[in-house]
């Protein structure tokens, strides 16, 4: 437990006018950037670093933490309104948010996302605050074998997430993993599938790829298919967002808690960030659901569980970053840089030398996640104006945002070409019954999976038992095996029943 | 657009074969049986197997080798809008530094509105304001160097 004098000292550091002002300004900034497709939470936090140089440690960390938390939530707004995930963390449940919005339940969708994000974030922040050192010790025991099984669990989730044909989901996953192979190989520095194009040496740029895979097919359908869109209820009145919501949240308290814990746990593992946490929590939620067929077609349960997990993971990722100086994801890599800049070299000793500052930083996590609700409401109310315009009138603006977002990440027109090319591919895939979501996860997880595979193969030196001779690796291997065999066993059981 | 599973399966299997052949041509790490081709090789096999299974299931289900496109593609103005949103943007990417974001995307936006039947000048004005606003947000607030093209002196 945190000593009372440390807690009061930390509160005095947080509850000051400048820290609260920084939190409010960063929240507004994070909400805007998270809501603009193509501008990731990582990009938003990275752009803040020059400003944090001029701040004291607590407001500097408050700026980074608040921006990241708000951007992760705000990415759900374009996901619901335009089917464009603002950040990769929303990719797992973008189809559900979009389907709910199309059915005129955009208020419920965003209300769920808002409250589940806040609940998950607070849970993750409390875990970070109370159990950081113990939790980090577990993840430190991971070797490439554990990472391999964890990555396999992640990609298995992609296939479990796929609607319709499992075979087509598997092929889509393979295509995504293949796209992740493009560029310089990390083991030998060999260019793979670059076709002599220097811009491809760095691999397929993720942000333009995400914009293309999710936004462009929607844009093409709007312009060419012109589907009839049912009128969507406005969400301007905050009460509409929360109508019936407490009951839903109360009924789902156990699964929300599970998703928050899962998200925190996944976030703690270096390399596995909020996006992977959302995918895994979504898959677990689907497996436990009474109506798994509704996932991907407007499942409230899927949205709530994945939202709770991705914001919890954002906090969890700070555990190894702060306790051991190991970045859990790209945002915590920036956090380590900021902490070092402030003379707070991440590591166990910083908790001994500066306990009040570290506790104050933890309190900022809680505060930032609590602020998601009121500030998120304002952001949703403003964004809802978009719904009043005809989709055909919005299409050129969406295209403009796609072009700007694809260019922004590398200041290169190559990103725009990638966006269009992958968008065309995604359109053809969806029209022919291949789900896009597994391809996206393959693209995101590909480098992690390949690195773990190659390292493990070298370590194993031809001994297959090396992959399961460690207890955690064996446990994860069993979970992966169950993930693949359970649906087949369930199907066989159903056949025997009938 | 719909393509028969038999044809899709053959295409995927052919892609997998190509990936496998390419991956087998890459050298292994010194003293190791694995290397840069290991993961793509595994993927090649996976795609070949998956493609073959898809082709077989397509043939078994008796699908016809017909390619069908959405009726929207047969309407000239919708076809033009679809091509503009893809090919037009690719063309813009090729000359992005010269044409610039505000002019290039602004012209595309107005053309798309016209092709979509949204021909009231108010929509065009709104779209142009949106493009200019986005340009200012990216360049002034976020320091993203979106090219202004011929409007460099103005923006």
From TrEMBL, chain A:
Superkingdom as given in the UniProt entry: Bacteria
InterPro entries: DUF112_TM
Swiss-Prot/TrEMBL keywords: Membrane, Transmembrane, Transmembrane helix
Signal sequence range: none
Coiled coil feature spans: none
DUF112 domain: residues covered: 20-441
Pfam families, per the entry: TctA
Transmembrane segments: 12-36, 48-74, 109-132, 144-162, 169-193, 199-216, 261-282, 360-382, 394-427, 472-490
PANTHER family per UniProt: TRICARBOXYLIC TRANSPORT PROTEIN
Protein name as catalogued: C4-dicarboxylate ABC transporter permease
Automatic annotation (TrEMBL), chain B:
A Pfam family it matches: TctB
Natural source organism: Roseospira navarrensis
TM segment ranges: 7-29, 41-59, 79-95, 101-118, 125-146
Domain DUF1468: 8-147
Protein name: DUF1468 domain-containing protein
Top-rank taxon: Bacteria
Keywords per UniProt: Membrane, Transmembrane, Transmembrane helix
